[in-house]
Amino acid sequence: MRRILRTPAGEALGLQADAVPPCDEETLAKLKGGFERARGNVVRVQQLLADEGIDVAYSTLTRWVREAGLRAPPRRAGAYDFRPGAEMQHDTSPQRVTVGGKTLTVQCAGLVLAYSRRLFIQYHPRFTRFEAKAFLLEAVRFMGGSCPLCVIDNTSVIVAHGAGADAVIAPEMLAFARTLGFGFRPHRVGHPDRKGRIERPFSYVEGNFLSGRSFADYDDLNRQAVLWCAEVANAKPKRALGMSPEAAYQIEKPHLQPLPDALPPIYELLDRVVDLHGFVSVDTNRYSVAERFVGQAVSVYKLPAEIHVCKRDTTIAVHPRLIGQRDARSTLPGHHPARWRENRGPADQERLLTGHHASLDRYVAALKQRGNGWGRRGLRRLLELKRTYPAGPFIAAVEQALAYGLFDLGRLEALILKQVAGDFFALDSGGDEDA
Fold first, then answer.
1. Nearest one of 36, 57, 44 to 205, comparing CA atoms
2. 232 and 94, same structural domain?
3. Domain around 279
4. pLDDT tens profile 23-70
5. Residue 260: half-sphere exposure toward Cβ, Cα within 13 Å
6. What is the CATH number of the domain that holds 326?
7. pLDDT tens across 210-259, in order?
């Protein structure tokens, strides 16, 4: 009360110049730094301070945060009551995550049981209907069942057109949901509090799960996300429940709809033609196929974790799916064996030309100095001349070209022809009998 009375009229409540700080200056600096790193999550701030050797009770820490003016006063909110097994809620949120040393904007997909508040999250580089079906299947498997109603926003991933009560669910998503025993219900436009059970956990995920963490790849990210849901988010007691979500889930579990014995497969069928390099392209990435299928039409099954390439009813290649990458390649062993040609490079050509005659060795060295790109074209042409004409006229012409500094191989060939004229070719035809 004394601190409030000392606050000048018109100024916002917070840490004023004449107010007593909640703790010493060094601890206050660490508190502010931890609050910024944890993005306002006080539970995470407590963990960060503990790492620096500052052990403080949670109630004391929240008082410090209030007195330091780091957090605005909360606003009054309404409440919804749900029966066990009556409803689940689904939503996505873009979040900044460090994956493979790069900070990326990815889509965090979440599903929560409205009664027990049991949470499940997964991350995807993008969120289309393919990722939505893959996520929802994993979510209901994590929950061990489904609720008959799934409340969503008016996203075009699930809604074909319309909004709210007039929304029309996309046929493929409607059929998929019916297979798992539930239906979608978009909330009224501008009324996100209707699915507040899933809206609020996203800030908790950003402030607790993502703070101070990095991940090797998407598999590592989603594996740690599931572990965090089980050990942290669903294990922590909630004041509104009077227990943890995991304990409330044990009450709700008998009311969930059991999953069908045969779960629907998640795949996308694509028609492709194997290109001249022996690859098929899926989402800008390329996957190898055996060379004998080059130019042939194949069927590609895009699964959540794998790529299957099929020819008629036979699977000819199975690749791990490249997630979160662009213009990458996956090549399986044995698909593209190396092909070596004789005289492939200038080193092989030079080896076949040198070591036979000193004049030819000098001519090869001079030709390389005058040629572009290691003299590849000149050495290849000279090797053709050596193999075409007899050795004697060829060496004589090379010596004559060296004497005159002649390195035009067209003129060198003319010199060789002069050397062999009358011997190699029958040029002196004396009559019809010689024709």
1. 44
2. yes
3. 268-330
4. 888 888 888 888 888 888 888 888 988 888 888 898 888 888 888 888
5. 12
6. 2.40.50
7. 988 889 999 999 999 999 999 999 999 999 899 999 999 999 999 999 99
How many contiguous H segments (helices) and E segments (strands) does the chain have? 14, 14
> What distances in angstroms separate CA 134 from CA 54, 138, 150, 303, one per listed residue?
43, 6, 16, 9
Question: Per this entry, what is the length of the chain?
Answer: 435
User: Do 234 and 160 have their domain in common?
Assistant: yes
The reply to whether 45 and 97 lie within a common domain is: no
Percent with pLDDT over 70 in the chain: 88
Query: If we measure between CA atoms, which residue out of 158, 177, 176 comes closest to residue 167?
Result: 158
The yes-or-no verdict on residue 343 having pLDDT over 50 is no
Any domain includes 190: yes
Between the alpha carbon of residue 290 and those of residues 316, 352, 368, the distances in Å are 8, 34, 39
Out of 228, 255, 282, pick the residue that ends a domain.
Answer: 255
381 token code pair:
């042409």
Tell which of 231, 255, 279 closes a domain.
255
| Per-residue model confidence as pLDDT tens digits over 143-180 | 999 999 999 999 999 999 999 989 999 999 999 999 99
Which pLDDT value is given to residue 423?
60
3-state helix, strand, coil in the chain (%, to 5): 40, 20, 40
> Tens of pLDDT along 405-414?
888 888 888 8
Nearest Cα residue to 238 out of 225, 226, 228, 247: 247
Q: Which two tokens stand for residue 399?
A: 């010596």
